[in-house]
Amino acid sequence: MTKAQDTKELSKLQEVYDGLALGYENTPFNVGVDKDYGVIRFKTDSVDKIDIPYGPTMERVGAKAPAGGFDTSPDPFTGHGFTKDMNDNIIPEYTMQYLKPNEGAELYRVNSETGIEELIAKYVDGKFVKIK
């Protein structure tokens, strides 16, 4: 998970794929094949459920283990709280336990080639409701 302000330069799927290091083994993302992808924008009052995903090497510099312990995910996971961006951008990343978004959260369909967004649903009464 990232903050919108940290990824505002990423809009086309190739940019998102490279910037968020989505080229891991068995990735569901297919640049050049996927016509669009989804983005959820939300605010939450449950900030206590958001962690920086530190790996075990961060313990040496005094980082506190996240709620579920240190993350040992394989490459491209960096373990230092930033994505392994392929274009030298600095993009902080976060993990979260299940959290409830505030009312009004938005679900967008984004065209993979142009980056043009279409608002398709809003979070109302505990679920995403399609916009007609």
From TrEMBL:
Superkingdom of origin: Bacteria
Disordered: annotated segments: 63-82
Name of the protein in its database record: Uncharacterized protein
Phylogenetic lineage: Bacteria, Bacillati, Bacillota, Clostridia, Eubacteriales
